[in-house]
Design a protein that fits this description.
The protein is α/β, with parallel strands linked by helices. The chain has one domain: Alpha/Beta hydrolase fold, catalytic domain (Rossmann fold), CATH 3.40.50.1820. The protein is 32% helix and 22% strand. The chain contains 6 helices and 9 strands. β8, α5 and β9 form a beta-alpha-beta unit.
């Protein structure tokens, strides 16, 4: 008889941090599949107004080589041992926040593609709940929407007009699901595909700019 065991083991994650004096808040980024922390930090840096935020880009724990280039990239998880992977990743993000947060400003998560699911899980399940999530090109994990106990922060959902992955149908479904729970999500569609464009950066910047006077939920 063959048994399958899931054995817990410590792991180290690679995190890039851009510190500022007297930060307005903590902006934590999650990259897409087969990307790196550098890619997401570059996106966060290009968002207007983030010069006053501490920027953090967490790299996925699942590292691998990409094709013939042998570049080291990462992903967040696969469907194998899914529940264990979710717990590991949420604990990882909890530790990232504990290690990088200074002051009492808001925590906002900003994610692209595969990283979107990670951002929502960390925001809803993590120790330090985020005050907001900017989700670009990815949908909300269905198990969070199905759980009536889940509490969502402020949400901005963004998709590209020609994105074949995060389609208009998926965006509408996410918006409807959040509204059915009594939430008030925002949505933005940019003139692009499955990508983080200058329009996306502007929309994210506007979301952060409206933070003044808003209370964390």
């Amino acid at each position: 008889m063959v048994r399958t065991l899931s054995i817990e083991a410590p792991a180290h994650g690679r995190v890039l941090v851009r510190d500022v004096d007297s930060p307005r808040g903590l902006l934590v980024g999650f990259h897409g599949y087969a990307e790196t922390a550098e890619a997401q930090l570059g996106r966060l840096t290009a968002v207007p107004g983030t010069d006053s935020w501490t920027l953090v880009a967490a790299q996925g724990l699942n590292r691998f080589y990409r094709g013939r280039t042998q570049d080291v990239v990462a992903g967040w998880m696969t469907r194998q041992d899914r529940d264990d992977a979710i717990r590991d990743n949420v604990a990882y993000v909890d530790n990232v926040i504990e290690a990088t947060r200074t002051g009492s400003g808001p925590i906002v998560f900003a994610a692209f593609s595969q990283g979107v699911a990670m951002a929502f899980r960390a925001a809803v399940l993590g120790r330090a709940r985020a005050g907001g999530v900017v989700a670009v090109g990815g949908d909300i994990p269905p198990e969070l929407l199905a759980d009536s106990a889940s509490s969502f922060p402020r949400v901005l959902l963004i998709r590209g007009a020609t994105d074949d992955w995060y389609t208009a149908k998926k965006l509408d479904a996410d918006m409807s699901a959040l509204r059915a729970r009594g939430e008030d999500p925002e949505a933005f569609t940019h003139d692009g595909g499955h990508e983080w464009t200058g329009e996306v950066a502007m929309a994210a910047g506007n979301f952060l700019a409206r933070w003044d006077g808003l209370k964390r939920r």
